[in-house]
Amino acid sequence: MQLPNCLCHLSALVFSMVVGFILSWRLALASLPFVFLFVGPVLGMGALLKGLGMKMKGAYDKGGGVADQAISSIRTVYSYVGEQQTIDKFSNALETSMRLGIKQGFTKGLMIGSMGMVFVTWAFVAWVGSYLVTQKGETGGPVFVSAICVIMAGL
What we know:
Elements: H1 2-23, H2 25-72, H3 74-79, H4 83-114, H5 117-135, H6 140-154
Helix pairs in contact: 1-2, 1-6, 2-4, 2-5, 2-6, 5-6
């Protein structure tokens, strides 16, 4: 499942950039750095989220093991008045997952915030495109389609 998605996104990147350069090479060249502002954070944070997810699964498994032991031997826990001890052990086991959850939430917030670069890119492309149409004599249609191609290449 990963390989077809990767090939689909890579081919969309390449062909969108090719079409963008064919239609308006000046606009595509000016907005090329923004493509890397899209791709870089998404790849880095995606790998970070995957690692955090795996660590969180392990932390939840540890807490689940403590709860499973306590429930399976509830008579022993009750007879030795070990309820508070079991609660403390369970809370300590979930402490790690809580810290990892906070990191995961922060990372997701950064990813969503970095998508604000799409608006910055649209503003830049609109400004450069309007300059190319008014000053350099390019046609509006190819400039607009080139802008869409460059932005879609980054997404």
